[in-house]
Specification:
- α1 packs antiparallel against α5, α2 runs parallel beside α4 and α3 runs antiparallel to α4.
- This protein has 5 helices and no strands.
- With 140 residues, the chain is mainly α.
- Helices cover 67% and strands 0% of the residues.
Length: 140
C-alpha cells in the first residue's frame, strides 16, 4: 500500500509539473497532539519525506494564490502521504508540521502571485518530483 501511495504522489508531481497550471490554498492541515507513549519510527528516507511534505504545503498555497482551480488537491495528496507514512503519532505530527511550515512560510512571503512566486512554485514542483522519485526507490 505504501509503495502505491508513493508512486501516486510521484505521478501527481510529474503530472502537475508538466501541466503547470498554477496554484491553490485554502486551509492548513490540523492534527491532534501525539500521545505520550508514541514510538519513534525513523526510516532512511525521512529527511526527503519531511522535505517533500514542506514542498506540498508551499505548493498548496502558491497554486491557489496564482489562480489554479484545484481546490484541495495538494492537501489531499498530503493526507494520502500521512495515511501511508504516518505509522506513529510522532511521524504524523512531523509530516503535518512540515506541510504547515511550507504553507505558512509562503503565505507570509507572498500576498499575490508575482513572477518570483511562480518561479518558486516551478522550482518546488521540480524538486518535489525529484524527492518523490528518490523516496519511491526505497519501496522497491
Amino acid at each position: 500500500m505504501r509503495i502505491h501511495i508513493k508512486i501516486g504522489v510521484l505521478f501527481f508531481f510529474c503530472f502537475a509539473f508538466f501541466m503547470y497550471s498554477v496554484p491553490t490554498h485554502k486551509h492548513v492541515i490540523h492534527f491532534s497532539a501525539a500521545p505520550a507513549h508514541a514510538q519513534k519510527n525513523e526510516r532512511p528516507y525521512d529527511a526527503n519525506l519531511f522535505r517533500l511534505a514542506e514542498f506540498l504545503g508551499a505548493i498548496h498555497y502558491l497554486r491557489e494564490l496564482c489562480g489554479a482551480n484545484e481546490k484541495q488537491l495538494w492537501r489531499k495528496q498530503m493526507e494520502a502521504l500521512v495515511d501511508a507514512e504516518g505509522t506513529t503519532a510522532i511521524r504524523k505530527i512531523k509530516l503535518v508540521n512540515n506541510f504547515n511550515k511550507g504553507y505558512r512560510g509562503y503565505r507570509r512571503t507572498y500576498r499575490k502571485c508575482t513572477p518570483p512566486a511562480r518561479a518558486a512554485l516551478k522550482r518546488f514542483m521540480q524538486q518535489g518530483a525529484t524527492l518523490a522519485s528518490s523516496i519511491s526507490k526505497f519501496g522497491q
